[in-house]
Specification:
Blueprint: E1 4-11, E2 18-24, E3 27-30, E4 33-42, E5 45-53, H1 56-76
Antiparallel strand pairs: 1-2, 2-4, 3-4, 4-5
């Protein structure tokens, strides 16, 4: 994984353990293909994934969206983050309609 560029630390309200969600620096994979790693580590979690785009900006934006989706999924299951996933990186997450 590349260098972390943005991090948010949550607390799992059930176990009181910290969970770190991170966006990593986009990196060149191949011509016109960039990757942006995401990670969610802590409270027995070890989620690592990568979003791909045609340039750094697209990879970064898709990485943020992927991280929001992962946190929404985790928060609806066994983890319950303090403040909920809506606090992720200052971006609003739409709850189910």
């Amino acid at each position: 994984m590349s260098t972390e560029v943005a991090v948010r630390v949550f607390t799992d309200s059930k176990t009181n353990q910290q969970v770190k969600a991170a966006i990593h620096l986009p990196y060149l994979v191949a011509k016109n293909q960039w990757g942006c790693d995401i990670s969610i580590i802590g409270a027995s979690l070890n989620v690592k994934n990568c979003a791909y785009g045609i340039d750094e900006l697209q990879a970064l934006v898709l990485g943020v969206e992927m991280l929001k989706t992962e946190i929404r999924f985790l928060d609806s299951g066994t983890l319950h983050f303090d403040g909920g996933p809506d606090l992720l990186i200052g971006l609003e997450i739409q709850k189910g309609r």
